[in-house]
Amino acid sequence: MRQSIIQWFRFASPQSFYPLAGRMIPWFWAAAIIFGIGGLWISFFVAPTDAQQGEGYRIIFVHVPASWMSMFIYLVMAFWAGLGLALNTRVSGMMAQALAPTGALMAALSLWTGALWGKPMWGAWWVWDARLTSELILFFLYLGFMALQAAIDDPRRADKAGAILALVGVVNIPIIYFSVKWWNTLHQGSTINLNKAPSMAQTMLWGMLLMALAFWMYSIAVALMRVRAIILERERHTEWVKHAVE
Amino acid sequence: MNAFLATVRRDLLLALRRKSEVLTAVFFFVIVTSLFPLGIGPEPVLLKKIAPGILWVAALLATLLGLPRLFSADHVDGTLEQMALSPSPLGLLVAGKILAHWLLCGLPLVLLAPVLGLQFDLDASTLGILTLALLLGTPLLSLIGAIGAALTLGVRGGGVLLALLVLPLYIPALIFGAGAVEAHSAGLGAGGHLSLLAAMLALAGFFAPWATTAALRVALE
């Protein structure tokens, strides 16, 4: 047991995390591509046309996973940020910094695909509904996090300031999630509910879950690639980086 | 508690010696709200409908305007470091500074709001709800804003960055604050909105000084 604890903390050092991340990246990329192909095949060729929404509904296979990821990545980011703040580990802060652009991308993708879906379904690109607005706020929170980190030159201070901001912003996540219940508005309630059987065809569900897995794997792979770049940049004065780059 | 009151007193005194800084934010509030009718047109029905939103957004921006001053002067002349070193907890002193900030930047807005509401043809009971909502909401704005002010302390382009960080966090306050007035006008009763606003104030009153202190310690390192 003692041994395993030491093993985990070994990877809190950039030097030992760098090669580990390098080894994991190809696996996550491979998984992302396999799940992506499977998910896209189901969502385009297997899943039936929706009775009410026609073919246009197929955008949910991108929209829903992107929305999930945008919210989940913020939580993961806040987790790493909090860990970095509590334990003062360097890789945690780098991990939070590496996740932010992917999270912002997912939020932007979710808003954009939502707009593309909303135009044929609701007849409007944008409605001031609680969920849409919360997603927009989430997007702003990502931008604020990245802007704050970019504005502070000292990386350790940037990590800590960003961590506090991320933890403050995490209060926003439950508001997003419960907004549908709080404000009774246009947006349909969530389609997948753990308490009752999903109100969508089985194949649609599979397509969406596969796409969600593909998005997960993609996010992890990209975040790891980014964290490797951040490690190299911040540790450029050390001996091992000089060897690693050669 | 003595240290808390001393900090409030000190900040009020400092502000009263330089009145123009405080008054600028207040006049900003007045001017911004007066610009909207000029931009939209003098229709009373429309103005009455959008008045709560305009007053709230203007209050948000006016609070934002005063935020950089919250810590910057003390940071520059080293007072903040002395506060961090002092035997009384920094969180308490920070809470005192936030209270002083609200008394200087928030309270004048609350007192002015009924007068400005008259410009928008709001009736007496609506004005009461608006003032009450602002009374609950502006301390919330000061508390949340203090976190942003501490995070951007001494950072390049701090003012604009502060807006980017803080404004998204202000949105719930805006929604419930303006929503209270709208619900009252629609005859639904503003109790629910005001309660939520008060709940957020209680939450922020507990957590915000703490988060601000953490952010200040990061900035002082």
Report the radius of gyration of chain B as a whole number of Å: 18 Å
Biggest sheet details of chain A? none
Q: What is the CA-based Rg of chain A, rounded?
A: 20 Å
Helix content of chain B: over 70%
Number of domains of chain A: 1
Looking at how many chains there are and whether they match, the oligomeric state comes to heterodimer
Write the element-wise H/E pattern of chain B from the N-terminal end onward: HHHHHHHHH
What is the percentage of strand-forming residues of chain A?
Answer: under 5%
- For the record, give the distance between the C-alpha atoms at the N and C termini of chain B, rounded to a whole number: 26 Å
Beta-strand portion of chain B reads: under 5%
Terminal residue distance of chain A = 37 Å
Number of domains of chain B: 1
Give structural notes.
The complex is a heterodimer of chains A (about 250) and B (about 220). Chain A is an all-alpha fold. Chain A has helices spanning about 1-10, 15-45, 60-85, 90-120, 130-150, 155-170, 170-180, 200-235, 240-245. Chain B contains nine helices and no strands. At the A-B interface, helix 5 and helix 6 of A face helix 8 and helix 9 of B.
Outline of this structure?
The complex is a heterodimer of chains A (246) and B (221). Chain A has 246 residues and is mainly α. Chain A is 78% helix and 0% strand.
